[in-house]
Amino acid sequence: MRIEGNHFDGMSMSNISISSDARSWYESGPVRDVVIRGNVFDRPASPVTSFDPTDQDFVAGQPVHRQVLIEDNRFNLTSATVVAGRGVGDLTFHGNRIQRYAHLRLTGPDQPLHIGGTATLSTDASPAGSTAPLVTFTGAEGVTIAGNSYGNGFNKRVDTDAMAPSEVTVIGDGLALNADNITSAPVTLTYTGSDPSVATVDSRGLVTAVGTGRTVITAGPRSAVTGSSPTR
Question: What Pfam families does its record include (predicted)?
Fold first, then answer.
């Protein structure tokens, strides 16, 4: 199975969900040789990638799904677990980029501000820091996590359940097994205005009109013009 070169944007459930339904709908079975490569996941729900067979019990040495490669993807998160793997074996997570979703939507007043007037802007920004573990495994074996990059404000944690933690090998990624590891500085949301002679904006998104004209207010962890706010 190959899942390559796709753009997933704002999906309300797992972007990629691989089950093995042997208890309810009987719609799917085990998979072998899965490659998830070169995809972009924007504002995904959690977990982004899910392996979730309906088996209630796992037999050591007999994972349901095998030979999974997740590599060279971009995960642009608000707050999410990237991989949740139940009953999966021989999974490699390599060369992926996990970062904050930067293209925020900025909401402000519908009408121009009069000089001296104020308005508070709002965004769809995620919390500054996420406590959700980036990766979780249940009844898994033979997992390798290596060579990935991580943005600020994530909990670089791998949770394991119904398995030996030694089944997860982390190489150079700085992930902690079954322990919180929020080592990166939280993301700080910043606001800037293109013309401070027209309006000023503070760190909370409070805009104050000080002159006539039009200014562009930008919000985000990165430069991303999201709207304009005229004053008069």
Answer: Big_2
Res 100: pLDDT? 85
Q: Which two tokens stand for residue 90?
A: 């021989």
Q: What span, in angstroms and rounded, lies between the C-alpha atoms of 220 and 136?
A: 29
| Contacting residues for 66 by C-beta, under 8 A, at least 6 apart | 30, 31, 32, 33, 88, 89, 90
> Two tokens at 168?
């997860």
Roughly how many angstroms between the first and final C-alpha of the chain, as a whole number?
59
Report the length, in residues, of the chain.
Answer: 232
Q: Which of 93, 89, 92, 103 is nearest to 149 (CA)?
A: 93
C-alpha pair distances (Å), 56 with each of 61, 81, 145, 199: 16, 22, 26, 59
Both structure tokens of 176: 């902690």
Distance CA 4, CA 113 (A): 47
**How far is residue 213's CA from residue 112's CA, in Å, rounded to a whole number?**
10
CA distances from 193 to 102, 124, 222, 224 (A): 17, 19, 14, 12
Give the pLDDT confidence of 41-54 residue by residue, as tens digits: 999 999 999 999 88
What span, in angstroms and rounded, lies between the C-alpha atoms of 205 and 181? 30
Structure tokens at 15: 């972007």
